[in-house]
From TrEMBL:
It comes from the Bacteria. This is N-formylglutamate amidohydrolase. Keywords: Hydrolase. GO terms for molecular function: hydrolase activity. InterPro entries: N-FG_amidohydro.
């Protein structure tokens, strides 16, 4: 189904690892015109570069599953609440998106077509095959066009809201592995954590929210490297918390 709002990799199993990738795709459905140049869809504003490939490597090498968003976040941002204006962004990193100037009916239709089915499917997975741990993967650009002087030296950022313990363990693991890791950087999970707030924290499911710097995972070698690192990180957190994930 090329128009499906999500992709499922692997088979979700109870008490396993579930990967969530809200921004894994830069796809625009053929009947949607955002009114921007095609090359803009290759930029970070359209998707989280590298996330889908990292998730696929993890699923292929480890017994787990992933749910990945299958439309660009410029079509609908799955990591927002449905009543937020940015769920259908009017601009991103200084770029105006004229095709997102929608009236209330058109906004509701797009949210109903892509946002709602994605979150409904994630909810059903959590209800029917409740995982022991969720790994939420995003990626961040090394530099924003709108803030060119802002430095983002971290290879990895860890985000969390109220559930801090899994993330603090993940930070310890990454730091000891020699990874330059940002605690609540380059963003704060206290400010932006919609999907994990809604599906992990609300259901008392341990999770790790991770941001990978895009120049580290835009190529196959980096994708393989971080797939291995993240798998080992999840097992480390599982051991410390007694979650019972199988060894990688």
């Amino acid at each position: 189904m090329t128009d499906a709002p999500y992709r499922i990799l692997g088979v979700p199993v109870p008490n396993g690892l579930l990967i969530v990738g809200d921004h894994a795709s830069n796809r625009i459905p053929p009947d949607i015109d955002l009114g921007i140049a095609p090359d803009q869809m290759l930029r970070h504003i359209a998707w989280d570069i590298g996330v889908a490939d990292v998730a696929e490597h993890i699923v292929n090498d480890y017994r787990c599953a992933a749910i990945l968003g299958n439309v660009s976040r410029l079509v609908t941002d799955l990591n927002r609440y449905p009543d937020e204006s940015d769920v259908i962004p009017g601009q991103s990193d200084g770029l105006f998106i004229p095709g997102n100037c929608l009236d209330g009916e058109a906004r509701a239709a797009r949210i109903g077509r892509y946002y709602t089915p994605y979150h409904d499917r994630l909810s059903s997975i959590l209800q029917d095959q409740r995982p022991a741990l969720i790994l939420s993967i995003h990626s961040f650009t090394p530099r924003l066009s709108s803030r060119p002087d802002e430095q983002r030296p971290w290879e990895v950022g860890i985000l969390y809201n109220d559930f801090e313990i899994p993330s603090k363990l993940a930070i310890r693991f990454l730091d000891e592995a020699g990874i330059k890791v940002g605690d609540q950087l380059p963003y704060s999970g206290k400010a932006l954590n919609a999907t994990m707030n809604r599906h992990a924290e609300a259901n008392s499911i341990p999770y790790i929210g991770i941001e990978l710097r895009q120049n580290e995972v835009e190529h196959s070698a980096g994708q393989v490297r971080f797939a291995r690192i993240l798998t080992e990180m999840c097992h480390y957190v599982s051991e410390k918390l007694g979650l019972g994930l199988q060894k990688p």
